[in-house]
Amino acid sequence: MKWTHMLSKRSSVFIAALVLAGCASMGGDRSVRSTLSGAEQVPPVKTSATGTGTVTVAEDKSVTARITTQGINGTAAHIHEGAAGSNGPVIVPLEKTGDNEWSSKPGQKLTDSQYEAYKAGRTYFNVHTPQNKGGEIRGQILPSGGGSY
Fold first, then answer.
1. 123-147 b/e with 16+ CB inside 10 Å = b?
2. Are 102 and 70 in contact (CB under 8 A)?
3. CB under 8 Å to 149, separation ≥6 — which residues?
4. Which among 39, 62, 60 has a CA at the least distance from the CA of 135?
5. Residues 98-134: pLDDT tens digits?
6. How far is CA 47 from CA 41, 42, 70, 79, 131, in A?
7. Are 29 and 65 within 8 A, CB to CB?
8. CA–CA separation, 127 vs 44, rounded Å?
9. Which residues is 123 bridged to in the sheet?
10. Contact 122, 99 (CB under 8 A)
11. How do the domains of the chain map onto residue ranges?
12. Which whole-number Å values give the CA distances from 7 to 4, 10, 15, 18, 50, in the listed order?
């Protein structure tokens, strides 16, 4: 009886150590999801097009991003710096990688000020079209509690 109790305790400690080690190796990288729509554009755009964006910013500020769209023939896609309700400059250009897909190029990094804007929720995805050159669908990137991980 004592032997099985001791084995059970040691197993629990071992499993806890493995879980902790796994979490530590994950670092600060988190994927943040955002839903894109015309209602988020500034000014709003009436469209049935939608999209989903996912971005991961590593501890070294390198960016991996992807947008998947529906009902839109986009001509360009980017991550912009700008708070909700305002427009801002492109900080991460995305390239078309499929019929309805855009991705960041490997090795792209945010500057220190762009990283601070990202953490504060002042960045957004944007997909542009010939009809809406300023953007047809948009989704704010909210890494601190407002986005999904």
1. bbbbbbbeebeebbbbbbbbbeeeb
2. no
3. 30, 31, 32, 33
4. 39
5. 999 999 999 999 999 999 999 999 999 999 999 999 9
6. 11, 13, 11, 20, 11
7. no
8. 13
9. 81, 141
10. no
11. 29-141
12. 5, 5, 12, 16, 54
Query: Which residue type sits at 106?
Result: P
Q: Is the pLDDT of residue 72 over 50?
A: yes
Instruction: Name the one residue in this structure whose structure tokens are 């971005």.
Output: 55
3-state secondary structure of 101: strand
| pTM: predicted TM-score of the whole model, two decimal places | 0.79
β-pair type (63-70, 101-104): antiparallel
Architecture of the domain spanning 29-141: Sandwich (2.60)
Please, which residues bridge with residue 124 across strands?
80, 140
| pLDDT attached to residue 90 | 98
